[in-house]
Amino acid sequence: MSTIGELSDISVPDLIEIFSRRKRTGRLTVRMVEHEVQLFFNNGRLICVTSSDLTLRLGRMLIRQGTLSSQHLLEALSVQAENSNQRPIGAILVEKGWITEEDLLKCVEEQSVEALARIISEGPGMFIYDAGQLSPGNVEPVPLTPEELLRKASDRARSLKDIRSRLPRQSAPLSISSGGTGAIASLATAEAMVVTALRSGPKSLADLTWQMALDERTLGEAVLTLCDRGIIAPGGESRSQSSPLSEPVLQTR
Known about the structure:
By secondary structure, the protein is of the alpha+beta class. It has two domains: 164 residues, no CATH class; 68 residues, no CATH class. The protein has nine helices and seven strands. The strands form two sheets. The protein has a five-stranded antiparallel sheet with strand order 1-5-2-3-4, covered by helices on one side. A hairpin with a 3-residue loop joins β2 and β3. The radius of gyration is 19 Å and the shape is globular.
């Protein structure tokens, strides 16, 4: 039997605390305007977090972190497909020696914290709890306790709110400034990706979100850093009022 409710009546942190304290086993699905997150519990322990946001897929995050190459990801996905998608992609990458166990744990932690921070920081939504539902076998388990995950996700949610408040407006065109046309070799990966995208002409935040495989926080931090360094410049009105980077898009995992 499913339990359905609105997040206006009870918050995600409160739901996690209740399921953890009551030693529940099942799946909590949180549906927001832009995406969906599923949290799986086993006897009160949060064992798995999945997100419909493609930018939070493990392979993409490892590539952004500079830990994994695109070629190795494609090869690992091929191996996973040969095994009917039953094996976690992270386990395959570790087995092949393309990432370490430590790399995997750090990325899964970041993936889980980021997904939970999104649903904490966003607006209206609903939840569905299905008791007894087990986690899928092809994803990595969360290395954090519910308490640790909530603490880190709450800190991240506050960071997201701050980033959103300082970003240019969604429709404001961004372009490379006259003094920012030099080499991008010294830039961080995300910042270099933004500059490369803007070399073909001005683009808004909404355009960059659609075109680039960067999550909201990574893209937002890159844009703010580039603006602060004078490498790119926003046109029109330059500040938003806590608006998210992307337009509503829901993908299923």
